[in-house]
Design a protein that fits this description.
mainly alpha, 7 helices, about 70% helix
Length: about 230
Amino acid sequence: MDIILTNIWRFFDPLLFGAVLGSVLIMAWVQNGRASLVRAFAALANSSRDPFGDSGENATYMCRRIDFTMREAGLSGLEQVRSIDKFVVNVLGRLVHAKDSKSFEEWVRLEEHSAKTKLDGTATYWHSAAEIAPAIGLIGTIIGLIQLFATGIDPLKMGPAMSFTLLTSLYGLFVSHIIAFPIYVRLHARAEVLNSYRSMVIEHAISIAKRELNPVGPVHFSPAKASQKAA
């Protein structure tokens, strides 16, 4: 331990670490799409907090609150219902102004899919980074070995090549297991909580729409009558 602490500066090469980290982030961005990088870093702002940790809000509470508001103020009263999750507020606002249950259900299913894709995408980016990082480190190791063999048995030149070889593997493992994978686990758990919460509230909203709004009946088409030939 004393040897590591005394020579800790030997384990950190800012340029090499930046090259490994930058390569990992770029490859994960290429793999997940152009908007994934921005969303992945934007999600870090709230990743340390549970979605409903401060308020204690949950799907059962929200569904009961919706039912209570319906009994007290009717369908229009849902515009006054508030939630920590802005997605749910938008869904309830749309429910109040929906014309029929079918169009509302189609809209809310599309919105749920879009929101779920964005949430899962942020976690998927960091999962991709965790998988790519060891490969980037291995590539650096192979480059270092090629450089090492190219220099021949020259002790003065073997040191830098070996250092490059080992540090790239170290940085690849560090980025994967110390940075990217823990972030993925956290964002994935957060996404599961939000997706489950939204799914339950959406199903409840759809059932209300089917009960309170006028459904659109099936459209019947009658075949055109054949024209009668003139006698």
